[in-house]
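Sanity check

After download, print the first record. It should look like this:
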Amino acid sequence: MRPIVYALTAGSIALPASASTVTVTIPRLAVAEYHRPYVAVWLEPQGANGSGGAARTLAVWYDVKKGGQELGTKWLSDLRAWWRKGGRSLKMPSGVSGATRAPGQHVIPLPADLKPGAYVLNVEAARETGGRELVTVPLTIPNARGAGGGKAELGAVTIR
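Expected structure tokens:
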């Protein structure tokens, strides 16, 4: 049996060139009644005429533990753009849904199986007794880089 040898460079494992991440910033708002926002992050492929296919949800953060008569999923339709692009029919795959996030920066990996081409990254937030906001960032795979930013419910959105 041959031994398997792993090489480490500078103490870290080299990631594939296509390993990109999205960083979503949720700002801390100075309001009397603060509720963490529901957030959806999804990709849309862009064809030559501006539309290129079905949206792919990367993350949905909502009140996953809400019980009683009004489950947390009831308010997912407040994420209007995501809801229309396929959220209403989505069966939450493993690793996509999660609890709402506190203010700060949150990192989401881009899927490694994305085909080369043009995409639009969408990040939408809706907050109870707050507002709604949608940030879109165009990107090209394989060299995914880009940035955008919100004005109220979302802060900086960066792709690296």
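If your output differs, re-run the checksum step. Summary of this record's structure: Helices lie at 80-84.
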